[in-house]
TrEMBL record:
Highest taxon, organism lineage: Eukaryota
Protein name: SAM_MT_RSMB_NOP domain-containing protein
Reported cofactor(s): Fe(2+)
Gene Ontology biological process terms from the UniProt entry: oxidative RNA demethylation
Source organism of this protein record: Caenorhabditis tropicalis
Length: 170
């Protein structure tokens, strides 16, 4: 089968969702020509000369662009929830706030949930989670991460995604 025929067949088999026109994130981050704008933005803020301009970066705690609310009502916080949060190294649930972008439904930020002394513990857990048998963007295609890293030690990995659907290019 020709490539075009396979693509047409996939398009025909793709289920259509009623009332759904387009992915609201697709037009702002990925384009049809394969250019991923994430990489350009990543490089913009990574560069050192000239230093990046952070005026467009949103300050979660003071931006008028975000909606903010408490995660739990005071009546929803049980002693069990508070004890679990304490055990996990999280701040008390009464202090949890969720921030959302009105123009990006489904994107929520929950900053400051970890107690400062637990941040390193969770960071170590995240690094451990990124190792096999868990799937990351480095192991998605069956690459031996250690051998691959040793083969090109001068090329650093810009980021690591803990998902099966990672299609970004570092």
């Amino acid at each position: 089968m020709m490539r075009e025929q396979v693509e047409q067949q996939l398009e025909q088999e793709e289920p259509k969702i009623i009332g759904f026109n387009e992915d609201q994130y697709a037009d702002s981050s990925d384009s049809d020509d394969g250019v991923n704008e994430f990489k350009a933005v990543f490089k913009k803020y990574k560069k050192r000369r000239p230093p990046p301009d952070f005026s467009e970066v949103i300050d979660v705690k003071s931006s008028p662009l975000l909606n903010s609310r408490h995660v739990f009502k005071p009546t929803d916080i049980t002693p069990e929830k508070a004890a679990l949060a304490e055990k996990l190294g999280l701040i008390h649930p009464s202090e949890w706030r969720v921030f959302s972008f009105p123009d990006r439904s489904g994107l929520y930020l929950l900053p400051g949930l970890l107690k400062k002394e637990m941040a390193t513990v969770w960071l170590k857990r995240a690094f451990k989670y990124a190792n096999p048998p868990n799937i990351t963007n480095l192991t998605l295609h069956g690459k031996d991460v250690e051998r691959y890293a040793l083969a090109s030690p001068k090329k650093p990995c810009g980021f690591l995604s803990l998902t099966k659907n990672a299609t970004w290019i570092p």
